[in-house]
Recover the amino acids of this structure.
């Protein structure tokens, strides 16, 4: 079981890297929020799964699984709330027409 | 208040405090009591009350924690005195259905976790103020999503004035009970494990519930101001 931790950890690390680059390089608020959300959900989710596998079997695995579920719920909700608030405030999304 | 009287009062308070500060060993000096014997003594003779952090916060420097709890309570009183109440002009913005659903879904779990943190503070890291921050944050979250009126409806009605002061009141009660049982104010009766546990739980719950209500009302006072 604990060998499964390696691929999930690598997936998590890759998504954290990609999301960080996206956060720094993407052009506007919405796409950056999208990148940040990937960080939270896929990145942190995969790393928590990897840790759960690494500590399996045990109580800590279930606690980490619970934490992963919480992040899976809370992360996208927060991104949605941010994007909605930005849209209501009239933040225009980036288009290909922009320089 | 008479300004001369106020100046005399402040000077009278400041002089003994500054004298005590001057008598303290230099910061970081190895002669400080904490380095010579206090810390070792405390670790060796063991935490009488739960874990070491709880023992130090509630027992060894219980008076200090009592003072901190009173300061937080006084902070709320000051804000409530200064903040003028007015009816909220804007109705709550209609919340996104997704956010509303998720907040409704997680609210009971966050509340449960808050109480867990308060009570498990006796044995593991956690405790009253940490739990209070979680519960207060929960009320504020509900206020952001459903409007301050809804957040206000989550607070207890008639008991609110008493529960806001639950931290100092619980500490005072524990101090009196401990005084009767051991002869020292805020002493914890280690020979009566059940009473001992009940006192600690009472203090943690008092700090937790009182603190949560104080945080919530600070938010509501700012929302109304």
């Amino acid at each position: 079981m604990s060998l499964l931790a390696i691929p999930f950890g690598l997936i998590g690390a890759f998504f954290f890297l990609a999301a960080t680059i996206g956060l720094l390089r993407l052009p506007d608020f919405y796409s950056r929020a999208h990148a940040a959300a990937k960080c939270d959900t896929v990145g942190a989710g995969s790393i928590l799964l990897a840790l759960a596998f690494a500590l399996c079997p045990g109580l800590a695995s279930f606690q980490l699984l619970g934490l992963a579920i919480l992040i899976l719920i809370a992360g996208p909700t927060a991104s949605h709330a941010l994007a909605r608030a930005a849209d209501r405030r009239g933040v225009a999304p980036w288009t290909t027409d922009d320089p | 208040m008479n300004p001369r009287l106020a100046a005399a009062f402040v000077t009278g308070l400041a002089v003994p405090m500054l004298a005590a500060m001057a008598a303290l060993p230099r910061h970081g000096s190895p002669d400080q009591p904490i380095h010579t014997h206090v810390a070792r003594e405390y670790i060796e003779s063991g935490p009488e009350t739960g874990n070491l952090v709880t023992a130090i916060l509630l027992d060894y420097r219980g008076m200090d924690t009592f003072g901190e709890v009173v300061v937080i309570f006084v902070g709320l009183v000051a804000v409530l005195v200064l903040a003028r109440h007015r009816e909220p002009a804007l109705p709550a913005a209609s919340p996104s259905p997704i956010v509303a659903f998720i907040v409704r879904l997680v609210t009971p779990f966050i509340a449960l976790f808050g109480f867990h943190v308060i009570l498990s503070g006796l044995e593991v890291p956690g405790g009253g103020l940490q739990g209070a921050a979680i519960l207060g944050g929960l009320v504020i979250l509900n206020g952001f999503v459903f409007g301050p009126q809804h957040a206000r409806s989550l607070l207890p009605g008639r008991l609110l004035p008493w529960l806001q002061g639950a931290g100092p009141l619980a500490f005072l009660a524990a101090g009196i009970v401990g005084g009767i049982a051991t002869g020292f104010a805020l002493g914890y009766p280690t020979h009566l494990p059940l009473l001992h546990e009940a006192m600690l739980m009472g203090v943690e719950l008092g700090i937790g519930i009182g603190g949560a209500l104080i945080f919530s009302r600070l938010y509501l006072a700012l929302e109304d101001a």
Q: What stands out?
A: The first helix of chain A runs from residue 5 to 25. Chain A has one domain: 2-87. The mean pLDDT of chain A is 87. The two ends of chain A are 50 Å apart (CA to CA).
